[in-house]
Specification:
The two termini are about 15 Å apart. The chain is about 70% helix and about 0% strand. It folds into 2 domains: about 40 residues, no CATH class; about 55 residues. Helix 2 crosses helix 7. The mean pLDDT is about 90. By secondary structure, it is an all-alpha fold.
């Protein structure tokens, strides 16, 4: 049995030889492009300006609040807006394995088999 020494799925399948480091980079860049932050989603909707996003980020760093909590406290967003943003963010989130499949680097079957193995190994070897 393999001892799990990798926290991330990408490192796990890299070690197995299914992907290369360049593949990890390509998948992460696709995620970065598709997975907008809560602030960017609010900007797209016209609910926040870039300056307001920066103000929220600074406040967030000082208080350790979630982005939405800081935006509400500062009066930039209301609770309903934050809930809508979070719902959209969660629904449209592209996971790393999904990015690999979209890029044609692994198949859906390979993803599912390796995620299952990775999850089993993690549960057998808690970090």
């Amino acid at each position: 049995m393999m001892v799990l020494k990798y926290l991330f799925f990408g490192q796990f399948i890299l070690k197995k030889g299914l992907i290369t480091f360049d593949d990890i980079f390509r998948a992460r860049m696709l995620q970065k492009k598709q997975n907008l932050t809560i602030g960017d989603l609010a900007l797209k909707r016209g609910w926040l300006t870039r300056t307001e996003i920066d103000m929220v980020l600074v406040a967030q760093e000082e208080t350790a609040e979630e982005f939405g909590e800081s935006a509400i406290r500062l009066g930039y967003l209301n609770k309903d807006q934050v809930e809508e943003l979070l719902s959209h963010h969660k629904k449209d989130h592209l996971f790393f394995g999904e990015a690999l499949v979209q890029l044609g680097l692994i198949t859906e079957k390979q993803l599912m088999e390796n995620l299952r193995e990775f999850d089993e190994l993690k549960s057998d070897n808690p970090q």
